[in-house]
Amino acid sequence: MTFATPAVLGGLVAVTMTASGAFAQDARTAADLPIAVQMYTLRDHGTLDEQFAAVQAAGVTAVETVGMQDSTAEDLSALMAEYGVEAISTHAQLDDLRADAQAVIDFNKAIGNDVITVPYLAEEARPTDAAGWTALGEELAGFSATLQAEDMTLAYHNHDFEMVEFDGRTALEIMMEAGGEDVMAELDLAWVARGGLDPVEYLGRFDGRVFAIHAKDNAPEGEAPDERGFKALGEGTLDWDAILPAAEEAGAQWYIIEHDQPIDAAEVVMTGATFLTENLPDSATR
């Protein structure tokens, strides 16, 4: 009878552990990772029921809702439970917070969400100078304090118009400084790039204050006009090999798949979920 020596046994254990580790890495799923879907992407994809079905089909278990999703809190909660998804943020218009912040709070508490993200400013509501952006930041600070008292967080989602500079600082930086450290950034990196800035470098300006990134891609110039020039994640011009580690370094908690005008929303969600599952850094965890 031949017995394996300790050295051989050690080698076998090492090989087994290595193989197990590789298998575990390969077995990562979207449900294991901080991947979510912005429901705006699916707004034209049939009923709300069908939209959540598309999220589920992609293996994603977290969503960012849009307002009240034309639903009651009770019905929305039941639908999310049916499809095994949780709300990790909602896009709530600034005017809704101004009109009745408590109603926004109550609805989102009822669906289990604790992050309220201001998603957009109408053109007439956009400040035109640094003082105006500072004043807006101070207003956000007030809403943030209200939310903090309810164990909730305020975030702000950018487009390209916040990339305008005043004395070398972007409007978003000015506003966020005035808002205080409790106001988090939800950086839409496709819009950052459209604003003429490098997403990797820009992420570093918000180190420790990045709640999430909106993970979507820009088509090459002149392409995909019927999709507003956007592409499915990983199929466009953004350098995700550099962006994803930079987002992790900046402390991003979530990677939210979005496309502003997809031809096939369900396919965009599936493609985004697959791309993030295969490419998120090992440190990206829920």
Structure description:
The chain has 286 residues and is of the alpha/beta class. It has a single domain (30-279), classed as TIM Barrel. 43% of the residues lie in helices and 16% in strands. The strands form 3 sheets. The chain has an 8-stranded parallel beta barrel with strand order 1-2-3-4-5-8-9-12. It has a two-stranded antiparallel ribbon with strand order 6-7. Helix 5 runs parallel beside helix 6 (171-179). It is globular and about 45 Å long. The N and C termini lie far apart (50 Å). Mean pLDDT is 92; it is low at 1-25.
Helix proportion range: 40-55%
Q: What's the architecture in CATH terms?
A: Alpha-Beta Barrel
Sheet with most strands: strand arrangement: 1-2-3-4-5-8-9-12
- Unreliable stretches, pLDDT < 50, 5 or more residues? 1-25
Shape: globular
The CATH topology annotation reads as TIM Barrel
Pfam family, one: AP_endonuc_2
Keywords: Isomerase, Plasmid, Signal
Protein name: Sugar phosphate isomerase/epimerase
GO molecular function: isomerase activity
